[in-house]
Specification:
CATH class of the largest domain: Alpha Beta
Strand order of the largest sheet: 5-4-6-3-7
Number of strands: 7
Number of domains: 3
CATH architecture of the largest domain: 3-Layer(aba) Sandwich
Distance between the termini: 44 Å
Strand content: 5-15%
Structural class: alpha/beta
Number of helices: 7
Largest sheet: 5 strands, parallel
CATH topology of the largest domain: Rossmann fold
Order of helices and strands: HHEEHHEHEEHEHE
Shape: globular
């Protein structure tokens, strides 16, 4: 706000990251992604971490959650009082939607690190894949959620709290990407309402192992 007041200008701008790549949550992430030649105003690290919830509202008051964020469907329901309208799309409509999404973050591949990101529904399969990669002479690092066994590679361990994981997710992926290993292995969170937004971001950032 101080910058806008000093400049006397309006600002229209996209997100501070290259198209489909990892979102930044610190000034250092912006500089790493866009280059140090672009001035960056550092307001501190993002507290929420992942992108906002985006809702479409039609003229008749019907609404639909287009991009999940940390404002959940249940939170929205408390305000509007009616459940969202779920549109069942045909295969042709899904193809058009993939090509021309309504809102940011709806591309099939989005929020992605430069390093290939492999996703796993359970820890045991992730550990097995890490052993397979190392036996093949490849390097890897892992992102895991919660306590438990760990693979024999460099690991970033996040908590089992959805809000904390959302805040730390992109920072963890930026750090793992900087290692320049052959592959990043990531554990998916539970398929539960509290994890919808984190699950969405990880699912778009990589591919199932």
């Amino acid at each position: 706000l101080a910058l806008l007041k000093l400049s006397g200008l309006s600002v229209a701008a996209p997100s501070a990251n290259l198209f489909t790549q990892l979102s930044p949550t610190t000034a250092a992430h912006v500089e790493a992604g866009l280059g140090v030649a672009i001035p960056v105003l550092d307001g501190g690290a993002c507290q929420v971490g992942i992108e906002s919830s985006i809702v479409s509202v039609s003229a008749d008051g019907q609404w639909q959650l287009l991009r999940p964020g940390m404002i959940s469907e249940a939170d929205i329901l408390k305000v509007v009082g009616s459940r969202q309208q779920i549109k069942v799309e045909s295969e042709d409509e899904k193809t058009i939607q993939a090509q021309t999404p309504k809102v940011p973050g709806q591309h099939a591949l989005h929020y992605s690190p430069r390093t290939p990101l492999m996703l796993f529904n359970n820890r045991a399969n992730l550990i097995q894949e890490s052993e397979t990669l190392m036996q093949a002479g490849k390097t890897c690092a892992a992102l895991i959620i919660g306590e438990g066994n760990q693979p024999n590679c460099q690991v970033v361990q996040l908590t089992s709290q959805p809000n904390e994981v959302a805040e730390q997710l992109y920072g963890a992926l930026h750090g793992l990407d900087a290692l320049q290993v052959d592959c990043i292995l990531a554990e998916l969170p539970p398929n539960a309402p509290a994890w919808v937004a984190v699950l969405d971001r990880l699912s778009r950032a990589g591919y199932k192992g």
